[in-house]
Amino acid sequence: MLVAVACAALALDVISKIIVVATLQDRPPIRLLGGLLTLRETRNSGAAFSIGTGYTIIFTVIACGVVVAIVRTARNLRSVPWAVCLGLLLGGALGNLVDRVLRAPAPFQGHVVDWIEWPHWPVFNLADSAIVCGGVLAVLLAARGLQLDGTRMTGRDAADGTDERDDAPEEKSR
Hints:
By secondary structure, this protein is mainly alpha-helical. It is about 50% helix and about 10% strand.
């Protein structure tokens, strides 16, 4: 499931960026839905909200670390919701990493193609959307106590810091 979601997110991001560069580069933005949505091709050398422009190589290294961490974590994964969550995060990270590695101005210093704009919001892309959705899902899963191995921490266990799970055959004595 993780691989399928990651591949879908990556494919959608890469294909959308190919189309955007081919159709919107060096052209005026396209306003849709009365200006609620604007399609505008931009390049971002930084992170979200164009923070850290000029540190592209650092963001490339961080993205590589995120990919490695997700792949290592996947070995212990036994939960479909967490597989979807990590798949979104992995696909999004890989989508922006592909830009950083392969796009101009130089290998491993490439600028990410962003193209979706809402009023009063920075321009973003489908990889960014996958990362945000994966992050929100991670928060929701953690808040519900769902663990990567598919077990669920009970409210009492989370409150007292123990590691008892609600799927345990019997309750440990205290």
